[in-house]
Specification:
Radius of gyration: 22 Å
Strand content: 25-35%
Helix content: 25-40%
Shape: globular
Distance between the termini: 58 Å
CATH class of the largest domain: Alpha Beta
CATH topology of the largest domain: FAD/NAD(P)-binding domain
Number of domains: 2
Number of strands: 20
Bound molecules: flavin-adenine dinucleotide
CATH architecture of the largest domain: 3-Layer(bba) Sandwich
Largest sheet: 9 strands, mixed
Structural class: alpha+beta
CATH superfamily of the largest domain: FAD/NAD(P)-binding domain
């Protein structure tokens, strides 16, 4: 749907109205209020068209940390998510073939929830509705950026829809067009790449027993297996399953009949939630680490998967992007109020200076966890029992959990 045809000049153009681009635009417009210059968001896919829906809004679910909730509250988005998120009240971490499990509960930590699970399609619906109704945002969808080139004062973009194209000048282009990003290639931005030679298979499942707001993380020799709690639907218990495995097994799993698939998943996960009664459509995602070697240039900033694509094992991709959005919005807010060009390097460098430590820490943490999960060495098994994953997802638990976990280590 087109809200409006693009004008030929904008202060800020956001390329990609996926989870990250949309959240950025909405957050900036909320923080700046009436100071917000009109923002153009261009999204290639139409969210309402299921056949061609945006990659962000597929059947996946996203685990959001506390920090992310606070960021989304700040930008006013959380109030629309309250109804659709499922809280995580407990996390159970276990190692297939090894005795014992580690538990964290919100009760012992004295918090409302340890985190929240949102279905990407629900998040997509909320964000799209906000984009469509915002007076500060021109939402052009479906429409795609075909070319971007630097100018003296920012970036020049060619936006297309079918046979029609528009030329738009922007002082700042926020590139949030996902991991494939032909625009990034066009601009000659190099990436550091590491292929994990693993795939994540995701599907929604209905187990026999209710999840009771427990998130399960189970380590298997082939890779981690997670069951995240989802809202029940038509009285059916529902969980979001993420099964990480090597490329060969993932190919086999994708070919299986539903009966074979359920038996395989049941074998990996065990019977904690009873029998898996139903399984929805399955999707698989290749897993890699990809880091853009330049995160900012004059008139350009990269956000989300185009900036850094992480393995989903630690549930960090969207949570990191939300922290980036928070810091970038604050830098732009300060700059725009002082009438500084939003594409000015002084603002963008300020953003990257503030976030580069977080980028490095989150990236290396996630990469280390992948190694830990893929190893059967005794030391790795021990590390897994310490539940590092949960510690990173919920940083406030780190201190108390560390002490507790020591007492839980069993051989
Ligand atoms: C299996 C799996 C599970 C995950 N679980 C978690 C989790 O629990 N917690 C967490 O924090 N993270 C998680 N992540 C990571 C999270 O999904 C990503 O961080 C997030 O999807 C990145 O969103 P994005 O908007 O940057 O990119 P995308 O989702 O790829 O969106 C990019 C958008 O840009 C549009 N676009 C592309 N090209 C153009 C163009 N030329 N013009 C206009 N528009 C364009 C696309 O249509 C799309 O809508 C998971 C990832 C995977 C694979």
């Amino acid at each position: 749907m087109i809200k409006k045809l693009p004008n030929n000049k904008y202060e800020i153009v956001v390329v990609g109205g996926g989870m990250v681009g949309a959240t950025f635009a909405i957050s900036l417009s909320k923080i700046l209020g009436s100071d917000c210059p009109p923002i153009l968001v261009v999204e290639a896919a139409s969210v309402k068209n299921q056949e061609n829906s945006a990659p962000s809004y597929d059947a996946r679910s996203t685990a959001l940390s506390f920090g992310s909730r606070a960021i989304l509250e700040n930008s006013g988005i959380w109030e629309d998510l309250n109804e659709v998120v499922e809280p995580i009240n407990e996390i159970q971490i276990s190692d297939k073939g090894h005795f014992g499990s580690t538990r964290l509960s919100c009760k012992e930590q004295n918090v409302d929830a340890l985190g929240y699970v949102i279905e990407n399609s629900d998040l997509g619906a909320v964000l799209s509705a906000r984009l469509e109704s915002s007076l500060a945002i021109d939402y052009f969808s479906p429409g795609e950026i075909r070319k971007a080139s630097p100018t003296q004062n920012g970036m020049r973009l060619i936006i297309g829809r079918g046979g029609v194209s528009y030329q738009v000048d922007a002082k700042l282009m926020v590139l949030a067009d996902g991991g494939r990003s032909p625009i990034c290639q066009q601009l000659g931005i190099q990436k550091f790449l590491k292929n994990y030679e693993q795939r994540a298979i995701i599907a929604n499942v209905s187990p026999q027993k209710p999840h009771k707001n427990i998130a399960f993380e189970r380590f298997t020799p082939d890779g981690p297996f997670a069951m995240l709690p989802l809202r029940s639907f038509d009285d059916q218990n529902r969980c979001s399953m993420v099964c990480v495995t090597n490329e060969q097994e993932s190919e086999e799993i994708m070919q299986m009949t539903k009966g074979q698939l359920i038996a395989t998943l049941q074998e990996k996960f065990g019977s904690r939630l009873g029998k898996i009664n139903h399984i929805g459509e399955r999707y698989d995602f290749p897993l890699k680490l990809s880091i853009a070697k330049e995160q900012v240039r004059p008139g350009l900033v990269l956000l989300g998967n185009v900036a850094h694509t992480l393995h989903p094992v630690a549930g960090q991709g969207m949570n990191l992007a939300l922290r980036d959005i928070h810091v970038l919005v604050n830098c732009l807010d300060r700059g725009i109020k002082r009438q500084i060009n939003p594409g000015d390097m002084s603002l963008l460098q300020g953003y990257i200076d503030e976030q580069s430590f977080d980028h490095g820490k989150t990236t290396s943490f996630t990469d280390n966890v992948v190694g830990l999960f893929s190893s059967n060495k005794a030391s790795s098994i021990l590390g897994r029992k310490l539940g590092i994953l949960s510690l990173e997802l919920f940083p406030m638990l780190r201190k108390s959990f560390a002490a507790e976990a020591m007492g839980l280590i069993r051989k």
